[in-house]
Amino acid sequence: MEATPALDDAVVRWSGEPDGRPVIVLLHGYGADESDLFGLSTMLPDAFVYAAVRAPLGMPWPQPGYSWYPIEGLEGRSPERTTEAARRFLEWVDAALGPDAIVGLIGFSQGGAISLQAMRLAPERFAFCANLSGYVTPGELEGDAALAERRPPVFWGRGTHDTVIPEGLIVHTTDWLPAHADLAGRIYPGLGHAVSPAELDDLRVFLEKRI
């Protein structure tokens, strides 16, 4: 199994200089890149600085974009690959933001899975997380008990017509999140694997409460 490389700091997109404001890191989904979620930064509270990172793996030829972990073949949605990618992301957070920064996460799909996995690996590192059309990776991690005690705010939004994430992972996430986080969740009728204006409004309210 090829190791997951480090994140490329040179391609990170920033909404502004890290000037002491809390930082929200945006983690895109499968086949996208750092520009995919960056546009959200103009529609969300300016009390935060936004940083959009690029996943470390290229897509199988000839598909464009990047991924956090494979979803095809024998390694498809492997918990070990998800955890490895989350550790590479944590390394970037520590190097780019330093130990004292207040950091929140917004992840879409794969990026949502990595956001929650990183929070499980380092429960004290992140102030909150928004998981858009993502899921919690099955299995136990060393930080799960500490996370359940800390119970950070987590927003989880998904659509009724999202057929991308397997039903078993949705069931697991539905059971797992309330026991480990202060959960704010909403299911959007008719929405597929995407972010709707209604979900964006809810995300904005969630972030305003974190200020």
UniProtKB/TrEMBL annotation:
* The Phospholipase/carboxylesterase/thioesterase domain, residue ranges: 19-210
One GO MF annotation is: hydrolase activity
Q: Which Gene3D superfamilies match?
A: alpha/beta hydrolase
Tell me the keywords, alphabetical order: Hydrolase
Which top-rank group of organisms is this from?
Answer: Bacteria
Classification via PANTHER family: LYSOPHOSPHOLIPASE-LIKE PROTEIN 1, LYSOPHOSPHOLIPASE-RELATED
Provide the family line: Belongs to the AB hydrolase superfamily. AB hydrolase 2 family.
Q: Which named protein is this?
A: Esterase
